[in-house]
Design brief:
Blueprint: E1 2-7, H1 17-24, H2 36-46, E2 51-52, E3 54-59, E4 62-67, E5 70-76, E6 79-85, H3 102-115, E7 122-128, H4 130-134, H5 137-144, E8 150-161, H6 167-172, H7 176-191, E9 195-201, H8 214-220, E10 226-227, E11 230-231, H9 240-256, E12 260-267, E13 270-280, E14 283-291, H10 298-313, E15 318-320, H11 326-330, E16 335-344, H12 350-362, E17 372-373, E18 419-421
Parallel strand pairs: 6-7, 14-15
Antiparallel strand pairs: 1-3, 2-5, 3-4, 5-6, 7-16, 8-15, 8-16, 9-12, 9-18, 10-11, 12-13, 13-14, 16-17
Biased composition (Basic and acidic residues): 403-422
Biased composition (Polar residues): 383-394
Protein name: BioF2-like acetyltransferase domain-containing protein
Length: 422
Amino acid sequence: MITVAEINDIDRIDNFRLAWRSLLGKTKGITFAHSPEFLEQYWGHFGAGLKLRTLMITLGNKVIGVVPLVVKLVPTKMGTMRVLTYPLDGWGAFFSQIGQNPAATMVTAMRHIRNSKRDWDLIDLRYIDQDGLDRKRTANAFKSVGFQGSQSVWRQLPLVKTQDTDWTSYLSSRSVDTQQQIFSAEQTTSKTGHVAFYRSQLEDPLAPGWNPRWDLWTEFEQMEFSFGNQSTIAGGSFSSSRKLAFLRDLHGPAVRAGLARIDALFINHALVACAYGLQHAHGTDYLAIGRQQNASPEVITTLITRMIQQSILDDEPSLNLSLLSPQFANSWKNQDQKSYRCSHFPIAAPRSQVLRLNRWIQQPPLKPSRTELVASAKPELKLSQTPDSDTSIEITAEAPAEWDNHQKPQTNDDQRRFRVVG
């Protein structure tokens, strides 16, 4: 018999850790954000004011699926709403249920939510890979238990496809302005001294000489995280110091899982720029890019250039810079993907129904879509200041910007040691 154990206390996660970890190896499209360690760090840094509702799907005495959920208070034009959603908040591109039976897991989870006391005003599951691994399982699970399952695009994801290409082909696909920006940055940085690029792909922590690169991290967190007036740290509108504290605590478990990446640019053996990301089977999601305060902004362009060149050499599928800012990523993208949201607005919650009507008015009907290679149209890099406020709310009071159709493991053999390129 399939049953559900609901966890509302983060300390109880430890009781299910081994079962949860065993499911990660059986789940397609898994990222570090699906791990219990990520949820624990997320909760420790951003869990104030949220309610944890992690669902453990069991068959007999065996856990066959996990669905991490939270209820968060979200200010809207209709007042503060209680939203049942995934605990990701911009720290990844896609999210999903965990386990090798995703359809059964999701249907069971939604049936449990339907039959439980309602402590939410609407369900809004975002970061869904509907065109890929999800295959409308989430929407079908909603409908199977009587939820409307309203679907819409959550985020446009401008990606850098680095597999099955070469640097010459990639560079020729860039606009003239972007090519000039790359060449100018290379000239500027090379004039200041010897330029070297380091990529730390962290090896098995049980291997002799294992190094988690805390030396690089210590310098990294002292950097300036901006490009123009645009923040270059993922994670929404939390303060930079709060987000860096989260990433620092995340680095330990991520590096032990072999999924952390540090890309660094050195000039005359001094670290001038650094990027931090989390790797997964489909590429790397970059969560922060910084530069030394006395370094020119051009070092960021040079760093990204070397990152792309190295990923092409490594035959890595893609790099995701869109979590930092879609506008920041647009100059580099040669591929577009979409992540979706699936929502349910209960009839018994009138304010939720008003939000549903508002979204329906503002967004066009959802059309079937696919991953597309984009033409090399001249990118418009419009930089705007990201709010730097201390808040656990992802959606601002005045913004249906977050409520409309706005644009949003390696094996041991594959793990490479820290090396120098260039």
